[in-house]
Write a structure and sequence with these properties.
The complex is a heterotrimer. By secondary structure, chain A is mainly α. Chain A has twelve helices and no strands. In chain A, helix 2 crosses helix 11, helix 3 packs across helix 6 and helix 3 crosses helix 10. Chain A is globular and about 70 Å long. The mean pLDDT of chain A is 87. By secondary structure, chain B is mainly α. Chain C folds into two domains: 178 residues, D-Maltodextrin-Binding Protein, domain 2, CATH 3.40.190.10; 142 residues, Periplasmic binding protein-like II (D-Maltodextrin-Binding Protein, domain 2). Chain C is 42% helix and 15% strand. Chain C is built from 13 helices and ten strands. In chain C, the strands form two sheets. In chain C, strands 1, 2, 3, 4, 5, 8, 9 and 10 form an eight-stranded mixed β-sheet that branches. In chain C, strands 6-7 form a two-stranded parallel ribbon. At the A-B interface, helix 1, helix 3, helix 4, helix 5 and helix 6 of A face helix 1, helix 3, helix 4, helix 5 and helix 8 of B.
Chain lengths: 272, 284, 347
């Protein structure tokens, strides 16, 4: 009984300590986003917190910021095409290696997933040199190719996870009932892995939209990308318009996240 | 269709488009990097020299590399402490609150790194929150210099990369059988002891996974390093970018890039090996 | 009324094409103008871009702000298909660009405004469209007695409050040369300058990657004194940021800034049109007003207002009061200085 008493107190202290630290961590996670949103409503010219006054002026500036619109539109276009390409390539790749008994499948798996951990900056630079060497000038095409290399692993990861969770018995019974491979794929596999594919596609889209290291090298002023434009503006001017833009981006991302959570259970798939 | 292939698998041929794509646009550039690093001068006229490599491995270059790796270690450790506390507490939260916490963790992951880093400029700046709070509380008279300092950079980076640490930790902690903790408590072990002797070892695979992702992200975090670290701190990503973009010294930049790649590969392999060991340990 | 305007626009466009018969109608690519970062970008975006678009049928133009040296790097890397159509250069990089055959001569014969420029500004390789002036910039709220000399930056009371830029910018390099001169060196010997920067380290609060970033540092209160561009602080002042400019007693440094058409650009006609707009008295007068306060080069523009008060009443006086540097000598060693600076100025 005495031992039980002791462990009660110590466990309380322990839980209390951990919870406090966890709360601090949560605050640290949320604070930056909140701060950016609040500061974007300042009526002054600097990023002082708390702001001296509030106004919508920087959002009005945002409406006029044609160069930012141009960059944003470029980023969206590139991200859309990248996502499409990543899904096509990634799903076919994942299908091939997910349940393959061959040893080469493991090798292929490492190859496909390696862009995730290797420094994208080095890759971006390498890609630029390669394209220059064969005479391809920087364009939307080179951007899409570069982005796809670093985004396709996300699609592969979620698709593979979805395939792994699929009960093989379903496939076997479909085959034993006489369905062709293609039919089984269309009617059984695809619907079951669709949420995983969509989740992977979403992450690939966001990853391409936010991408900096590859875009740094594979773009020029005519194919300006939003994160790069924002970074350059921050380095050069520390314009509060960027704060307004950031809030908009955060809100839109949040909305899309909610939609994806409802549709495909995004949070579950991110943890795999 | 291959008749001997089990019906649940697909022909390896399906991976051909992706494999071709990766070979052309990933492997080839890496080889290109190797090729270009063989030039001695920025004008790229004499091939077959190790001059660019020598430049990378002189005292200065090695210093930059070491500093970058050390930054990764510092950031990972801080992230680990904070992230573990969050993951541990998450599992004890009522189910209604859990999705909210996951969302808070996920949002930074999907937001642009420029936005996240920019927020830290506002927090750490001379007119930022931390200084404003400290001044209000009367703890300091003059604003502190937090921006462009090593500690400021470590704190900001640890936070920017925190989701990468928390998510694998949650997954790993969830897999631990709760009965084990109960058993440990009923045998008389205090909360700390249970934590250190039971929970932590069993969660080791998740710890390793989280550390790997955080470490890799922290050392390649070009934007955060330059916006918060400022012009006086030089790390590998900026070193590469300076040489490639401003100075157009492609051979040297290629040497830097390859060194960086190899360094990350070595670290990742080390982590993976640790991961395999810890899985064995956790299963035992 | 609308029809008349459209007729006017199209006839202007046709007229422009007439000047450059090689150009085909199909060139609808965006014009890319590499202006300088910071206050220059703001000024050009607010004044030059609208003027250019009005005169050229709403032609699409993108500003790609970057330092002079970076412009050279980008164009050299892709000579045959340059990512920039119009470059803006400080004296040093201008010499490099011309020397490396990166510029297309400006068609001065067909230009309306070229002959109105000051004689020094009339360069066929690329006319000068403004002068930059570099002196001491400081926060008058934190620093009560205005500084008078470059040496003031080393005063112990400024510990942790001084900002400088890297040598990638003309501001940084020009300042280094002046510091070297102050301690007995010259354009060919900057050793005393590097030593002085080493001694400055305890006072250094931040090293900005470009002059625009310096302005941002003032704005955020991270630095209180720095070598700086006259123009950069005007825009800050207009925003209520406490910052003042003062010419050091050693003499403010002046740089002639030239604008160039990039060789092999597909947008030659539009590029020339942009330069034309930049030389026009209307644009230069507007840029001379608050808050831009950019020193004009068109002789038809009378120097007035803040510029006449603080800098010089006319270009002749400017030549007397300001320091001009020998960029030919500086260019020879600049790359090695940049590398040395990057290595030595580390935390």
């Amino acid at each position: 009984m005495a031992a039980g008493r002791r462990s009660d107190l110590s466990s309380l202290a322990f839980t209390g300590g951990m919870s406090l630290l966890a709360l601090l961590t949560l605050v640290l996670l949320v604070a930056p986003t909140l701060v950016v949103v609040i500061v974007s409503f300042t009526d002054g010219f600097s990023l002082k917190f708390p702001p001296p006054g509030y106004s919508l002026r920087w959002y009005r500036e945002l409406i006029d910021a044609s160069q930012l619109h141009f960059a944003a539109w470029n980023s969206v276009q590139v991200a859309l095409i990248t996502t499409l390409l990543s899904v096509l390539l990634g799903v076919s790749g994942a299908l091939a290696i997910a349940r393959s008994p061959a040893a080469s499948a493991r090798v292929l798996d490492s190859l496909f997933m390696s862009p995730l951990v290797l420094p994208a900056l080095a890759f971006g630079f390498a890609a630029l040199m390669t394209f220059s060497a064969v005479g391809w000038t920087v364009s939307t095409t080179t951007l899409v190719i570069g982005h796809t290399v670093v985004c396709v692993p996300y699609v592969i990861r979620t698709t593979t996870a979805a395939l792994a969770q699929m009960d093989p018995a379903l496939l076997e019974s479909s085959a034993s009932l006489g369905a062709s491979r293609l039919y089984t794929f269309r009617r059984v596999t695809l619907p079951l892995i669709r949420p995983g594919v969509l989740a992977g596609g979403f992450i690939a889209f966001m990853s391409s939209f936010d991408n900096v290291p590859v875009s740094l090298f594979l773009r020029d002023a005519r194919t300006d990308m939003l994160p790069i434009r924002m970074w350059q503006d921050l380095e050069g001017r520390l314009d509060v318009t960027i704060a307004a833009l950031s809030s908009v981006i955060v809100i839109v991302t949040l909305l899309m996240m909610v939609v994806m959570e409802r549709a495909v259970g995004l949070s579950r798939r991110l943890r795999q | 269709m291959n008749p001997t292939l089990p019906v649940t698998a697909y022909p390896l041929r399906l991976a051909a488009p992706l494999a071709g794509f990766m070979v052309l646009f990933f492997v080839a550039p890496m080889l290109m990097l190797l090729w270009v690093s063989g030039y001695a001068d920025p004008g790229m006229t004499q091939w077959g020299s190790l001059a660019s490599w020598a430049k990378m491995f002189d005292a200065f270059g090695l210093g930059v590399l070491a500093d970058t790796l050390w930054l990764g270690v510092q950031v990972t450790l801080l992230s680990l402490v904070l992230g573990y506390a969050l993951a541990w507490t998450y599992l004890r939260l009522p189910p209604r609150l859990q999705p909210l916490v996951i969302f808070i963790v996920m949002l930074p992951l999907l937001t642009s790194v420029v936005v996240r880093t920019f927020a830290w400029i506002v927090i750490l700046g001379r007119q930022g929150i931390v200084n404003a709070a400290l001044l209000d509380l009367g703890w300091i008279d003059e604003p502190l210099k937090l921006l462009y300092t090593r500690s400021g950079l470590v704190v900001a980076l640890a936070n920017v990369q925190l989701p990468l640490m928390v998510l694998p930790l949650i997954t790993a902690l969830q897999r631990i059988d709760p009965n084990l903790a109960d058993a440990s408590a009923s045998l008389g072990a205090g909360a700390w002891r249970t934590f250190l002797r039971v929970t932590v070892p069993l969660s080791l695979p998740g710890v390793v996974a989280g550390c790997l992702l955080t470490f890799a992200a922290a050392i390649t975090a070009f934007i955060s390093q330059s916006l918060i670290g400022g012009g006086q701190m030089l790390f590998m990503p900026m070193y590469l970018y300076q040489q490639a973009s401003s100075l157009s010294n492609y051979p040297f930049a290629a040497a830097i890039g390859l060194t960086f790649l190899v360094a990350v590969l070595v670290c990742v392999s080390a982590f993976n090996a640790l991961g395999r060991l810890s899985r064995g340990y956790a299963a035992a | 009324m609308n029809q008349r305007r459209r007729l006017l626009q199209s006839s202007l466009a046709l007229g422009a094409l007439h000047l450059f018969p090689q150009l085909s109608m199909a060139q609808a690519k965006r014009l890319v103008f590499a202006t300088f970062t910071g206050s220059w970008e703001e000024a050009h975006r607010a004044v030059l871009v609208p003027a250019f678009r009005k005169a050229n049928g709403n032609a699409e133009i993108t500003l790609d702000p970057m330092l002079s040296v970076d412009q050279i790097a980008k164009v050299t890397a892709a000579r045959n298909n340059p990512p920039i159509d119009v470059m803006l250069h400080d004296p040093g990089p201008a010499l490099t660009a011309i020397g490396q055959d990166l510029v297309e001569p400006f068609p001065a014969a067909q230009s309306q405004h070229f002959k109105d420029l000051l004689p020094e500004a009339q360069e066929v390789t690329g006319p000068a469209i403004f002068f930059q002036v570099v002196g001491l910039t400081y926060n008058p709220e934190k620093i009560k007695t205005p500084p008078t000399s470059w040496r003031d930056l080393w005063k112990p009371e400024f510990k942790g409050r001084v900002g400088i830029t890297t040598l990638n910018s003309t501001l940084g390099t020009g300042w280094l040369v002046e510091v070297a001169k102050m301690f007995g060196g010259s354009e060919s010997n900057v050793e005393p300058g590097f030593k002085a920067i080493n001694d400055l380290k305890p006072n250094l609060a931040a090293v900005a990657s470009n002059p625009g970033a310096l302005a941002a540092l003032f704005q955020q209160g991270q630095i209180d004194i720095s070598p700086g561009n006259f123009n950069a602080i005007q825009i800050l002042k207009a925003r209520g940021v406490p910052v003042e400019f003062v010419s050091p007693k050693e003499g403010a440094i002046a740089f002639k800034t030239t604008i160039h058409i990039v060789k092999n650009t597909p947008n030659k006609a539009l590029a020339a049109a942009l330069i034309e707009a930049a030389m026009s008295p209307e644009v230069q007068t507007q840029l001379m007003q608050s808050p831009y306060l950019i020193v004009p080069t068109n002789s038809k523009v009378k120097m007035e207002g803040e510029i006449a008060k603080v800098l010089a009443k006319d270009q002749a006086e400017m030549k007397q009061r300001f320091v001009f540097q020998d960029w030919k000598k500086i260019n020879e060693q600049r790359a090695s200085w940049i590398e040395r600076f990057n290595r030595e100025v580390r935390v």
